[in-house]
Fold each of these.
Amino acid sequence: MKTLITPLQVLKTAFGDGEVLPQATIAEADIAAAEQRWIVPVIGRKLHDRLLAGVYPDLVTDYLAAPTALYTRALVQARLDVRTDRLGTAAPKPANGTAAGDEARRQLRRQLLEEARTLLQRATDHLATNKIRYPEYVADENRAARCSIAGGIILPDDGR
């Protein structure tokens, strides 16, 4: 499976120094799902395919790696907050603390999504000001430019 970034890049970019996780924590399928859900609707399928083919590597490195990593973390965070084994599913019990509560987990997810949206907007601003350099990007196909998001609800341009 081809993705814009690797699982290791997700771990290095979206997790802090104190959040040490094994590389197997993030699967390429997780990244691919985040790209499909959040990145492709904004940059378009044509540009995404070109990026997967290795064209415009600086665009990925400088503008799309960070939002992709953050969206991937937001996608898998709930899975990280519970453990499943042969005995079932349980919340982890840290040795020197307590597991985060529901409100802390919700705040973390909101913060991850907000930061990712902000960085993705930075990428689309770059694409819009460099149209000649990225002919595969079609601004009219950018779903984020045609709607607003208020409280997690997507609204059309006219605010309905």
Amino acid sequence: MRKAFRPIFIFLALNSAFLSNADDSAVSSFTNSNEKASERRIAGLWHDVNNSNFSNGHLIISQQGNQVFTAHYLEFKGTPFVEHGNGVREQDTITVEVKVTQQIPGWTTEGIHTLTLSDDGQYLIGEYASGGSKGPLKFKKAGK
């Protein structure tokens, strides 16, 4: 019986020596950066600050897991525009497929918004792609 336990004791001794000297800093720094990115708040109210042609613009984002949902209202040169969308969040970037429910004449009725949270967490900056066109988007966080 004593001989049967000897390999188990040797195995345990070697593994404990290996594990006590193991360095998982690369794994933990990767995990911490992912946790930090997912903890940064994107959900909430954002104001459209793209350019002076856009006024009274508001973007509401809600998040459940890695899924995001948006509602966006703006006025372009005084004409109202409304769209909503859903998409995904990967770290600090959201990609949202949007559908327009109140169109500005000549504008398309669907597209994709890709927005990335700024380093200071105060802006979402990116672009829209719609009907072969692309353009800038910029939102400033409202409140906390």
Amino acid sequence: MTGISFTHTLNADGSATVGVPLHAPEVSPNWLTPGKSGLAILRDGVPVWGGMIWTASADLSAGVLTLNAAGYHSYYRGRVLEAGYTSMAEQAFMVRTWIETCNNTNGIGTVTANSGSTTFIKYRSWSKSELKNVAEAIEELAEEVDGFAFRYEPFMSADGRVYHRLIIARKVMTTGGFSLEHRLNCDVGQVTYDSSAMATRVFALGADNGNGTKLVGVADNPALTSTMAGKQIVATFSDVKATNELKAKASAIAAAGHKPVAIPSVVLHPGAFSPVDVLPGRPCAVNANSGYVRLLGTYVVTETKTDVDANGTESIALALADKDLFEHGSTN
């Protein structure tokens, strides 16, 4: 390898870029084709990232082929619910149904057994003509205030082949927590504070109800009203046809907007953790106290970025979000 870089992103595809010698026998076009080939990254013989190769770039002068991949979730951006879908069911059951439908019609074999449960019952309905994108359907279900976290975990079978399975869990995992302390086992290089998502009232607009008006769900942050000037956010969900679902989406946006978002950028010290120790969704205690910056609480990993250079030196960077943003207003 001439270099490896991969990310795990909460409730999203994640990505990977791998450079390999252009003339290596493993990169023959006879069996390595963007859109058809998968990519697994092993660390000490254990898969730590897996996904689909979508593009490749050959630099003939440098003698390097760069493979660009995205996590298994990216595959479901190219699948739609052709037969439509209407059901009131538990969230994880819905997701498994959509994925298994793809599995049964020339899919990628995502293992859904023992994927988990949320216990929350939801209603979803799309007609055949809407051709609802499967990845979007999963993401929208996960984003609600009583939503969930999901990921696709690569694993190796006894015969040495890499497969992958769906994992569904609470928005914030109850296990796998760890502690970060500035300058002890990590460096907090930067903290960004952003108030753009703050709102005293949120409107979620849905589908046209047939008379030229749209369905709407409203949620408030009453505690903010007495401490800041009114600030409203309007979000559009054109395929949502139920007011209670729109209210849930508005509540999720309001929950995330009850205070400014502090986003620390953290680089772990070499050898302190492996990439699978710090997966998105895991809680971590953060201790970084420097002037204006006072990060003394529990955060949630939202993205992990791992870089490995040609010498095998590994660097892991984390993006974090306040745990309270995931739990405020939740009905879990």
Amino acid sequence: MATTDSAPPSRYQPSDQLRERLAAWQKALDETEPAAREDLDAGIARELTENRQLNLPTIAEHLPWTAEMIRLRMAGRGVPPRERHRKSEGDPLVYTPSERLRNLLAAWHQAVDGEKKAREALEACIADELTTHVDLTNAEMAEHLPWSQEQVRIIARAYDVPRRRKRGPDHRLITDKGKPKSVLVPYDWYVQQPGADPRIVKG
């Protein structure tokens, strides 16, 4: 058989489950988490506006960001300058985040966790698809995802999916009762692959 590096057109179509999990992850990434983050930023701005003695390092102690990051996030939100506390005014007030801000922070954390879980579910589904379709390459899978084939390879490795090899048009899929079983490859192609077993000889 003659060998070639060109891949045949892929006939693979993602399963309904993969499409659903991809849509759920994209919604969490593009809509749910950004909306929760915007609500939280607005809540921080309101907290700083209502208490002008509240400085950024103090509020940062209750948030997952540094004071500098909060300063950048508050840009353009009309937050007034901070008022310095004077010793003559007595001890500074101890700041406790309002219930409103705590709820917004909890909602944002929930959105972040939701996006993480949606991605994990998507990656598990990708691994299942690669395992089920033994002739499906990482590059073919990547055509249906917002990631490169290298990212698909990383996912496959994390889930112990059997390694994919570049497939030429002379590779043949062997099926058993209609289900994929193995892939028949040209010997000359096989011996050039990393990890080829030298004990396998041309028949």
